[in-house]
């Protein structure tokens, strides 16, 4: 296996970062290890749990399945990039707090990133639709009812 590093520039949370990474480095590992953005979590590392969900060009992506090189030239948003310019929480983050939509919190960043996309996609017509749209994000603690409540409340607040 080659140990050759590649230069690339990533646009993350509105800032450009120059990196030197091996070609096989995932976006998840680049975010966590090179940029020290540890809000995005490594769960299964196989695209099964959703803990590593980020946005790439406004669409949700499992960052453990995307190579960092594939994100070059694209806008990446992590959980750290959701807050407002004044430091205020995003409406989805606030709704998660208000609805107590987490227990251990490990899955929460991925849940929130997916929820933002689900709301943007207009997939919040019913609790069943929210559950279906959020199905790719697992919560081992079982906070699903409160997560659905948070997504519904955030969708109403953002309407």
TrEMBL record:
User: Which keywords belong to this entry?
Assistant: 2Fe-2S, Iron, Iron-sulfur, Metal-binding, Oxidoreductase
A molecular function annotated in GO for this UniProt entry is: metal ion binding
| InterPro entries named among the record's database cross-references | 2Fe-2S-bd (IPR002888), 2Fe-2S-bd_dom_sf (IPR036884), 2Fe-2S_ferredoxin-like_sf (IPR036010), 2Fe-2S_ferredoxin-type (IPR001041), 2Fe2S_fd_BS (IPR006058), Aldehyde_Oxdr_Iron-Sulfur (IPR052914), Beta-grasp_dom_sf (IPR012675)
Mention any Pfam family matching this sequence: Fer2_2
Q: Which domain of life is it from?
A: Bacteria
Domain 2Fe-2S ferredoxin-type, chain residue ranges per copy: 6-82
PANTHER family attached to this UniProt entry:
OXIDOREDUCTASE WITH IRON-SULFUR SUBUNIT (PTHR45331:SF2), OXIDOREDUCTASE, IRON-SULPHUR BINDING SUBUNIT-RELATED-RELATED (PTHR45331)
This protein's name: Xanthine dehydrogenase YagT iron-sulfur-binding subunit
């Amino acid at each position: 296996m080659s140990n050759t590093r590649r230069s690339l520039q990533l646009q993350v949370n509105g800032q450009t970062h120059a990196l030197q990474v091996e070609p096989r480095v995932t976006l998840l590992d680049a975010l966590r290890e090179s940029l020290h953005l540890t809000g995005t979590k490594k769960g299964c590392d196989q695209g099964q749990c959703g803990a590593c969900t980020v946005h790439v060009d406004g669409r949700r992506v499992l960052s453990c399945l995307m190579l960092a090189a594939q994100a070059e030239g694209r806008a990446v948003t992590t959980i750290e990039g959701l807050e407002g310019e004044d430091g205020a929480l995003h409406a989805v983050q606030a709704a998660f707090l208000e609805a107590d939509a987490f227990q251990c919190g490990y899955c929460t960043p991925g849940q929130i990133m997916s929820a933002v996309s689900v709301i943007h996609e207009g997939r919040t017509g019913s609790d069943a639709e929210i559950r279906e749209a959020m199905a790719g994000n697992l919560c081992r603690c079982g906070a699903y009812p409160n997560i659905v409540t948070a997504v519904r409340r955030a969708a109403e607040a953002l309407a």
